[in-house]
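1st attempt posting a full record on here, be nice pls
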Amino acid sequence: MPAGQSATAEHVDGKLVDSEFPALINPVQPFLNLRSLTHEVVAGLKATVRMEGDTFETEDCRNWTDASFKTYVRPLARPWPYTRKAGEPVTQSIKVSLSGKVKIGGSAKAENVIDVKLGKPLRMLDFVMNTTCPIVHATDDRSVMETLEALPYQIKTARTFLGKTPHRVGPSAIGCRDHPHGATFTPNPDNERICLAKAGPRSRALFGAAWLLGYIATFAHTGIESLTVGAPTGPRGVIYRRTNNKQPYFDSLSGPAVFPAYHIAAGLMNSAGQHLVESISSDDQQVCCFAHCNKAGTTLWIANLTARDQNVRVGGGKGAMFGTILDESSFRMTTTRPLEFQQSWRAMSHNLTLKPYAVAIISIAD
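the predicted structure (as C-alpha coordinates):
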Protein backbone atom coordinates (compact mmCIF):
# COMPACT_ATOMS: atom_id res chain seq x y z
CA MET A 1 0.00 0.00 0.00
CA PRO A 2 1.53 3.36 -1.06
CA ALA A 3 0.56 5.39 2.05
CA GLY A 4 3.01 8.28 2.49
CA GLN A 5 4.67 7.72 -0.90
CA SER A 6 5.15 10.49 -3.42
CA ALA A 7 3.02 10.63 -6.56
CA THR A 8 2.57 12.78 -9.64
CA ALA A 9 -0.99 13.61 -10.64
CA GLU A 10 -1.94 14.81 -14.11
CA HIS A 11 -5.24 16.65 -14.10
CA VAL A 12 -7.79 16.66 -16.90
CA ASP A 13 -6.50 20.11 -18.00
CA GLY A 14 -3.00 18.63 -18.50
CA LYS A 15 -1.46 20.23 -15.39
CA LEU A 16 1.11 18.07 -13.54
CA VAL A 17 1.17 18.28 -9.74
CA ASP A 18 3.71 16.60 -7.42
CA SER A 19 1.84 15.18 -4.45
CA GLU A 20 1.75 12.12 -2.22
CA PHE A 21 -0.58 9.44 -0.97
CA PRO A 22 -1.65 10.50 2.55
CA ALA A 23 0.12 8.75 5.42
CA LEU A 24 -2.83 9.36 7.73
CA ILE A 25 -6.31 8.41 6.59
CA ASN A 26 -7.89 11.19 4.57
CA PRO A 27 -11.70 11.56 4.90
CA VAL A 28 -11.85 13.38 1.54
CA GLN A 29 -10.44 12.41 -1.84
CA PRO A 30 -6.66 12.99 -2.00
CA PHE A 31 -6.66 13.20 -5.82
CA LEU A 32 -9.34 14.98 -7.86
CA ASN A 33 -9.88 15.71 -11.57
CA LEU A 34 -7.45 12.98 -12.59
CA ARG A 35 -6.21 12.02 -16.02
CA SER A 36 -3.19 10.01 -14.85
CA LEU A 37 -1.37 9.05 -11.67
CA THR A 38 2.29 8.02 -11.37
CA HIS A 39 4.00 6.47 -8.34
CA GLU A 40 6.74 4.01 -7.43
CA VAL A 41 5.26 0.55 -6.92
CA VAL A 42 8.54 -1.03 -5.77
CA ALA A 43 12.03 0.40 -5.48
CA GLY A 44 13.22 1.40 -8.96
CA LEU A 45 9.93 0.73 -10.75
CA LYS A 46 7.31 3.40 -11.48
CA ALA A 47 3.80 2.84 -12.76
CA THR A 48 1.73 5.39 -14.64
CA VAL A 49 -1.99 4.72 -14.81
CA ARG A 50 -3.68 6.80 -17.52
CA MET A 51 -7.47 7.05 -17.45
CA GLU A 52 -9.45 8.27 -20.45
CA GLY A 53 -13.13 8.82 -21.13
CA ASP A 54 -14.21 10.83 -18.10
CA THR A 55 -12.87 12.65 -15.04
CA PHE A 56 -11.49 10.29 -12.39
CA GLU A 57 -10.70 10.75 -8.70
CA THR A 58 -9.15 8.75 -5.87
CA GLU A 59 -10.49 8.02 -2.40
CA ASP A 60 -8.74 6.62 0.69
CA CYS A 61 -10.42 3.29 1.28
CA ARG A 62 -8.64 2.82 4.60
CA ASN A 63 -11.66 4.71 5.94
CA TRP A 64 -13.45 1.34 5.57
CA THR A 65 -10.37 -0.78 6.54
CA ASP A 66 -9.65 -1.65 2.89
CA ALA A 67 -5.89 -1.76 2.36
CA SER A 68 -6.09 0.40 -0.76
CA PHE A 69 -6.67 3.71 -2.49
CA LYS A 70 -9.48 3.43 -5.04
CA THR A 71 -9.56 5.45 -8.26
CA TYR A 72 -12.98 5.57 -9.87
CA VAL A 73 -15.34 7.44 -12.15
CA ARG A 74 -17.70 9.43 -11.99
CA PRO A 75 -16.72 12.24 -9.52
CA LEU A 76 -18.88 12.17 -6.40
CA ALA A 77 -19.46 15.93 -6.58
CA ARG A 78 -21.39 15.54 -9.84
CA PRO A 79 -25.16 14.87 -9.79
CA TRP A 80 -26.21 11.27 -9.31
CA PRO A 81 -28.09 9.46 -10.68
CA TYR A 82 -27.73 10.95 -14.13
CA THR A 83 -29.25 10.30 -17.56
CA ARG A 84 -27.63 9.08 -20.77
CA LYS A 85 -29.40 9.45 -24.09
CA ALA A 86 -30.37 6.24 -25.86
CA GLY A 87 -27.60 5.19 -28.22
CA GLU A 88 -25.05 7.61 -26.74
CA PRO A 89 -21.65 5.87 -26.78
CA VAL A 90 -19.61 5.64 -23.56
CA THR A 91 -15.91 4.91 -24.08
CA GLN A 92 -13.46 4.61 -21.21
CA SER A 93 -9.98 3.13 -21.08
CA ILE A 94 -7.20 2.43 -18.59
CA LYS A 95 -3.58 2.17 -19.68
CA VAL A 96 -0.78 1.10 -17.30
CA SER A 97 2.83 1.90 -18.23
CA LEU A 98 5.89 0.74 -16.26
CA SER A 99 9.31 2.40 -16.27
CA GLY A 100 12.57 1.61 -14.50
CA LYS A 101 14.35 -1.56 -13.42
CA VAL A 102 13.74 -3.84 -10.46
CA LYS A 103 15.26 -7.03 -9.07
CA ILE A 104 12.71 -9.72 -8.26
CA GLY A 105 13.35 -12.19 -5.47
CA GLY A 106 11.58 -13.81 -2.56
CA SER A 107 11.82 -15.56 0.75
CA ALA A 108 9.45 -17.75 2.73
CA LYS A 109 10.98 -17.20 6.18
CA ALA A 110 8.97 -16.01 9.14
CA GLU A 111 9.85 -15.19 12.73
CA ASN A 112 7.52 -13.11 14.96
CA VAL A 113 6.76 -10.45 17.86
CA ILE A 114 4.38 -7.83 19.09
CA ASP A 115 4.90 -4.99 21.57
CA VAL A 116 2.01 -3.13 23.18
CA LYS A 117 2.18 -0.05 25.40
CA LEU A 118 -1.21 0.99 26.74
CA GLY A 119 -1.85 4.72 26.87
CA LYS A 120 -2.89 6.53 30.05
CA PRO A 121 -6.46 7.91 30.01
CA LEU A 122 -7.20 11.59 29.52
CA ARG A 123 -10.22 12.43 31.72
CA MET A 124 -12.04 14.61 29.18
CA LEU A 125 -13.84 11.47 27.95
CA ASP A 126 -13.78 8.12 29.64
CA PHE A 127 -12.92 6.50 26.31
CA VAL A 128 -13.69 6.46 22.58
CA MET A 129 -14.73 3.22 20.88
CA ASN A 130 -15.29 2.07 17.31
CA THR A 131 -15.77 -1.20 15.53
CA THR A 132 -14.53 -2.32 12.10
CA CYS A 133 -15.79 -4.56 9.30
CA PRO A 134 -13.55 -6.22 6.67
CA ILE A 135 -16.30 -6.92 4.11
CA VAL A 136 -17.51 -3.43 3.14
CA HIS A 137 -16.17 -3.23 -0.43
CA ALA A 138 -14.69 -6.63 -1.34
CA THR A 139 -15.21 -10.20 -0.17
CA ASP A 140 -12.57 -12.34 -1.86
CA ASP A 141 -10.33 -14.02 0.71
CA ARG A 142 -7.23 -12.02 -0.14
CA SER A 143 -8.96 -8.64 0.12
CA VAL A 144 -10.57 -9.53 3.45
CA MET A 145 -7.23 -10.59 4.92
CA GLU A 146 -5.53 -7.48 3.51
CA THR A 147 -7.85 -5.26 5.57
CA LEU A 148 -5.52 -6.04 8.50
CA GLU A 149 -2.96 -3.74 6.86
CA ALA A 150 -5.29 -0.72 7.15
CA LEU A 151 -5.97 -1.06 10.89
CA PRO A 152 -2.81 0.69 12.21
CA TYR A 153 -3.54 3.67 9.94
CA GLN A 154 -7.01 4.01 11.44
CA ILE A 155 -5.64 4.07 14.98
CA LYS A 156 -2.78 6.43 14.10
CA THR A 157 -5.20 8.82 12.40
CA ALA A 158 -7.65 8.71 15.30
CA ARG A 159 -4.83 9.44 17.74
CA THR A 160 -4.17 12.79 16.04
CA PHE A 161 -7.51 14.11 17.34
CA LEU A 162 -8.10 11.88 20.36
CA GLY A 163 -4.87 12.89 22.07
CA LYS A 164 -4.46 10.74 25.19
CA THR A 165 -8.11 9.73 25.40
CA PRO A 166 -8.27 5.92 25.72
CA HIS A 167 -9.18 4.23 22.45
CA ARG A 168 -11.05 0.93 22.48
CA VAL A 169 -11.99 -1.21 19.49
CA GLY A 170 -14.89 -3.61 19.02
CA PRO A 171 -17.01 -5.62 19.09
CA SER A 172 -15.50 -6.72 15.76
CA ALA A 173 -15.80 -9.81 13.59
CA ILE A 174 -15.77 -10.65 9.89
CA GLY A 175 -19.55 -10.33 9.83
CA CYS A 176 -21.08 -6.86 9.56
CA ARG A 177 -22.46 -5.37 12.79
CA ASP A 178 -24.16 -2.36 11.19
CA HIS A 179 -24.79 -1.43 7.55
CA PRO A 180 -23.55 2.15 6.97
CA HIS A 181 -25.25 2.49 3.57
CA GLY A 182 -28.57 0.71 4.01
CA ALA A 183 -31.45 -0.09 6.32
CA THR A 184 -30.25 -3.59 7.16
CA PHE A 185 -27.62 -6.24 6.46
CA THR A 186 -27.17 -7.76 3.02
CA PRO A 187 -29.30 -10.95 2.98
CA ASN A 188 -27.19 -14.10 2.64
CA PRO A 189 -29.54 -17.09 2.42
CA ASP A 190 -27.10 -19.15 0.34
CA ASN A 191 -24.11 -18.81 2.70
CA GLU A 192 -21.94 -16.89 0.22
CA ARG A 193 -19.02 -14.48 0.50
CA ILE A 194 -20.85 -11.17 0.02
CA CYS A 195 -20.38 -7.60 1.24
CA LEU A 196 -21.98 -6.31 4.44
CA ALA A 197 -23.59 -9.61 5.46
CA LYS A 198 -23.86 -10.39 9.15
CA ALA A 199 -23.00 -14.06 8.60
CA GLY A 200 -20.84 -15.93 6.11
CA PRO A 201 -18.79 -19.11 5.71
CA ARG A 202 -15.37 -17.72 6.69
CA SER A 203 -16.26 -17.00 10.31
CA ARG A 204 -16.79 -20.72 10.85
CA ALA A 205 -13.71 -21.82 8.93
CA LEU A 206 -9.96 -21.92 9.50
CA PHE A 207 -9.88 -18.56 7.71
CA GLY A 208 -11.82 -17.05 10.62
CA ALA A 209 -9.27 -18.26 13.17
CA ALA A 210 -6.30 -16.96 11.15
CA TRP A 211 -8.04 -13.62 10.56
CA LEU A 212 -8.87 -13.23 14.25
CA LEU A 213 -5.29 -13.88 15.33
CA GLY A 214 -4.10 -11.41 12.68
CA TYR A 215 -6.65 -8.87 13.92
CA ILE A 216 -5.47 -9.14 17.53
CA ALA A 217 -1.78 -9.21 16.60
CA THR A 218 -2.16 -6.13 14.40
CA PHE A 219 -3.86 -4.07 17.09
CA ALA A 220 -1.22 -5.09 19.62
CA HIS A 221 1.15 -2.67 17.85
CA THR A 222 -1.17 0.31 18.12
CA GLY A 223 -1.50 1.14 21.81
CA ILE A 224 -5.29 0.80 22.07
CA GLU A 225 -6.63 0.27 25.57
CA SER A 226 -8.80 -2.78 24.86
CA LEU A 227 -10.16 -4.96 22.07
CA THR A 228 -13.51 -6.75 22.03
CA VAL A 229 -14.01 -9.51 19.48
CA GLY A 230 -17.29 -10.61 17.92
CA ALA A 231 -19.63 -12.35 20.33
CA PRO A 232 -19.75 -15.65 22.23
CA THR A 233 -22.32 -17.12 19.82
CA GLY A 234 -24.54 -16.15 16.90
CA PRO A 235 -23.53 -14.95 13.42
CA ARG A 236 -20.45 -13.13 14.76
CA GLY A 237 -19.69 -15.63 17.52
CA VAL A 238 -17.18 -18.39 18.11
CA ILE A 239 -19.53 -21.05 19.57
CA TYR A 240 -21.96 -22.83 17.25
CA ARG A 241 -25.72 -22.65 17.67
CA ARG A 242 -28.47 -23.17 15.13
CA THR A 243 -29.68 -20.01 13.41
CA ASN A 244 -31.79 -19.07 10.39
CA ASN A 245 -28.59 -19.01 8.30
CA LYS A 246 -27.14 -22.11 6.69
CA GLN A 247 -24.08 -23.48 8.50
CA PRO A 248 -22.80 -26.45 6.48
CA TYR A 249 -21.04 -29.21 8.44
CA PHE A 250 -22.07 -27.71 11.78
CA ASP A 251 -25.80 -28.11 11.11
CA SER A 252 -25.22 -31.83 10.53
CA LEU A 253 -23.59 -32.41 13.92
CA SER A 254 -25.60 -34.06 16.69
CA GLY A 255 -23.73 -32.49 19.60
CA PRO A 256 -22.26 -29.14 20.67
CA ALA A 257 -19.49 -27.55 18.64
CA VAL A 258 -17.24 -24.51 18.40
CA PHE A 259 -15.73 -22.68 15.46
CA PRO A 260 -11.93 -22.67 14.97
CA ALA A 261 -11.79 -19.01 16.05
CA TYR A 262 -13.00 -20.17 19.49
CA HIS A 263 -9.51 -21.44 20.24
CA ILE A 264 -8.00 -18.03 19.48
CA ALA A 265 -10.49 -16.15 21.65
CA ALA A 266 -10.47 -18.67 24.51
CA GLY A 267 -6.70 -19.10 24.49
CA LEU A 268 -5.98 -15.39 24.63
CA MET A 269 -8.68 -14.79 27.27
CA ASN A 270 -6.95 -17.37 29.45
CA SER A 271 -3.74 -15.39 28.99
CA ALA A 272 -5.16 -12.16 30.40
CA GLY A 273 -2.66 -10.35 32.59
CA GLN A 274 0.41 -11.92 31.02
CA HIS A 275 3.23 -9.80 29.61
CA LEU A 276 3.47 -9.25 25.87
CA VAL A 277 6.66 -10.45 24.24
CA GLU A 278 8.19 -8.91 21.15
CA SER A 279 7.83 -11.10 18.09
CA ILE A 280 8.60 -10.20 14.47
CA SER A 281 7.58 -11.83 11.22
CA SER A 282 9.81 -11.39 8.19
CA ASP A 283 6.62 -11.04 6.11
CA ASP A 284 3.57 -10.22 8.20
CA GLN A 285 1.31 -10.16 5.14
CA GLN A 286 1.94 -13.90 4.78
CA VAL A 287 2.53 -15.06 8.36
CA CYS A 288 1.61 -13.14 11.52
CA CYS A 289 2.46 -13.82 15.13
CA PHE A 290 1.63 -12.88 18.69
CA ALA A 291 3.52 -13.78 21.88
CA HIS A 292 3.05 -13.45 25.64
CA CYS A 293 4.73 -14.91 28.70
CA ASN A 294 4.39 -15.79 32.37
CA LYS A 295 6.70 -17.50 34.85
CA ALA A 296 6.27 -20.85 33.06
CA GLY A 297 7.54 -19.57 29.73
CA THR A 298 6.47 -17.94 26.46
CA THR A 299 3.46 -18.76 24.32
CA LEU A 300 3.82 -17.97 20.62
CA TRP A 301 0.86 -17.89 18.24
CA ILE A 302 1.56 -18.10 14.49
CA ALA A 303 -1.05 -17.82 11.72
CA ASN A 304 -0.75 -18.48 8.00
CA LEU A 305 -2.76 -15.66 6.42
CA THR A 306 -2.67 -17.15 2.92
CA ALA A 307 -4.30 -19.90 0.88
CA ARG A 308 -0.99 -21.73 0.31
CA ASP A 309 1.51 -23.56 2.50
CA GLN A 310 4.01 -21.37 4.36
CA ASN A 311 7.39 -22.53 5.66
CA VAL A 312 8.18 -20.95 9.03
CA ARG A 313 11.32 -20.96 11.13
CA VAL A 314 10.99 -19.93 14.76
CA GLY A 315 14.10 -18.19 16.03
CA GLY A 316 15.02 -16.70 19.39
CA GLY A 317 13.48 -19.31 21.69
CA LYS A 318 16.12 -21.13 23.73
CA GLY A 319 14.01 -23.72 25.55
CA ALA A 320 12.11 -26.82 24.52
CA MET A 321 9.07 -26.20 22.32
CA PHE A 322 5.72 -27.93 22.63
CA GLY A 323 2.50 -27.08 20.87
CA THR A 324 -0.37 -27.92 18.58
CA ILE A 325 -1.62 -26.81 15.17
CA LEU A 326 -5.13 -25.87 14.15
CA ASP A 327 -5.46 -26.86 10.49
CA GLU A 328 -7.48 -29.00 8.11
CA SER A 329 -6.21 -32.25 9.62
CA SER A 330 -7.32 -31.27 13.15
CA PHE A 331 -10.52 -29.46 12.11
CA ARG A 332 -12.98 -32.08 13.37
CA MET A 333 -11.25 -32.35 16.74
CA THR A 334 -11.03 -28.58 17.17
CA THR A 335 -14.73 -28.12 16.42
CA THR A 336 -16.31 -31.10 18.20
CA ARG A 337 -13.76 -31.96 20.92
CA PRO A 338 -12.19 -28.62 21.86
CA LEU A 339 -10.80 -29.71 25.22
CA GLU A 340 -9.12 -32.72 23.61
CA PHE A 341 -7.55 -30.43 21.02
CA GLN A 342 -6.29 -28.04 23.69
CA GLN A 343 -4.57 -30.97 25.40
CA SER A 344 -3.08 -32.45 22.20
CA TRP A 345 0.32 -30.81 22.62
CA ARG A 346 3.47 -32.46 21.33
CA ALA A 347 7.14 -31.64 20.84
CA MET A 348 7.55 -29.04 18.09
CA SER A 349 10.40 -28.28 15.72
CA HIS A 350 11.76 -24.79 15.06
CA ASN A 351 10.92 -25.45 11.38
CA LEU A 352 7.22 -25.68 10.57
CA THR A 353 5.07 -25.95 7.48
CA LEU A 354 1.71 -24.31 8.04
CA LYS A 355 -1.13 -25.34 5.75
CA PRO A 356 -3.52 -22.67 4.38
CA TYR A 357 -4.97 -20.52 7.18
CA ALA A 358 -3.45 -22.78 9.84
CA VAL A 359 -2.67 -21.49 13.35
CA ALA A 360 0.17 -22.88 15.47
CA ILE A 361 0.15 -22.50 19.28
CA ILE A 362 3.61 -23.03 20.71
CA SER A 363 4.86 -23.02 24.29
CA ILE A 364 8.56 -22.24 24.78
CA ALA A 365 10.06 -23.23 28.14
CA ASP A 366 12.47 -20.31 28.46
